Every structure is written in C-alpha cells, then in structure tokens.
Amino acid sequence: MKPRDITVYAGTVALGGALSVPALAEGVVLFAHGSGSSRFSPRNRFVADFLNEGGLGTLLLDLLTAEESEIDERTAELRFDIGLLSRRLVGAVDWLGTRPETRDLRVGIFGASTGAAAALNAAAARPERVAAVVSRGGRPDLAMREALPRVRAPTLLIVGGLDGVVIDMNRRAAAQLACEHRLEIVPGATHLFEEPGKLEEVARLARKWFQQHLGRAGRGAGAATAARSRLRV
Question: What is the pTM for the complete model shown?
Fold first, then answer.
C-alpha cells in the first residue's frame, strides 16, 4: 500500500512523516534515523514495505526539520544530539497514541545509526507504549547510560559481520540491557547492508521480531519475558 504523507507534531515541532497502516494491522513500527530523511531513505522504505506485507503499520519519520537537515549536512552535529532526537521520538510515540488508526496498536521502533540510541531512550521513557525495538547498524551505545537498564521492550540489535567497530559498540550496549534482547550478526554484510541479499535478511529478521512482540502472541508474552535476557552472536 502507498504511504500517506503526514505531519507529526512532537511538542512544538512539526516533522515530516509517511504513514502506512494495513487493514487489521496488529502493530505499528516507527522508523527513526539520526540524519537525512527517514521517509526518503531507500533502505528504510524497503524494510517498511516488507513490514507492511507482514501486516504491520509503519511510520517513517524525519527527526530533523528540513532546515535542520541542511545544517546537519554541513556540520554533522544534530545527528549526534541524542537528547533532541529522543525527545522528538517520544513525541512521535505520543502522537501515535492520539491517532484513531494507531492509538490501539502496540508500537515498535526501528532505529538506524544514532536513531537506535533515540529508540532505546524512547522505549525507556514510554515502557507502556513501546513494545519492541530493532536496531539496524545502530549506535545503541549512545543511549543514555541510565536508560539502557530501564528498557523493557524486547530489543533486537542487527549488525553487519564486516562492521567490526559497530559490533563492539552493540555488544557493550547489550551488556547493559536487562530486557529480552539478541545481537544478530549478518555474515558478509558491511555497515549499510549493501551486499546482495543482506538488506533482505535485515527486513526478514525485523519483521519476525516485530510480529512476535507486537502481534497477538506478544501481548501475553511480554510479562513472561521481561526478565529474560539472551545474547546470541
């Protein structure tokens, strides 16, 4: 289905977004990227289409305004303002709770790059709303130190097998998580998963995780798995 362009109000800031909610959707996944446009990212759109085909709604959100994106292109500063990104992501989670088509759906967050840190901060801030997190080549190590142990949402960290530095960063972050979590390393993939079939593997892993934790099965499993943690490399 074709996404619908919308404006998301996060506090006093208006952010661009693309919303797609299939009929009988069992959850909605909020996409967060620290730089550039999440709406126009080919990788995010590919994963979002795959999630839609699996019966999940998606909201691809630009965490920076157009003006801020222009500044960030020159300075690369705003993409590392994790506090700013996190506040806006929390605002977007709250916004989903006000929309008739999404207010009754469990929320997942798909974070890439520094958006992964914002995703974990938002999950810690809104444990009653955020039911699952997936990070793609992300920087979860940049999340607030006090936030990581407070994350209750089951968290999947996906990293390319050739992205050694980021693997180490994800391992350090995973060690601080007390929720159900898994580190999934995709063999032969670099940071952007540009190799043939690698982004498809990311999409497959993400869809399975979100379906498990946002769908009907996840509603009863959340309490039983909250204290269980597992790490697979």
Answer: 0.89
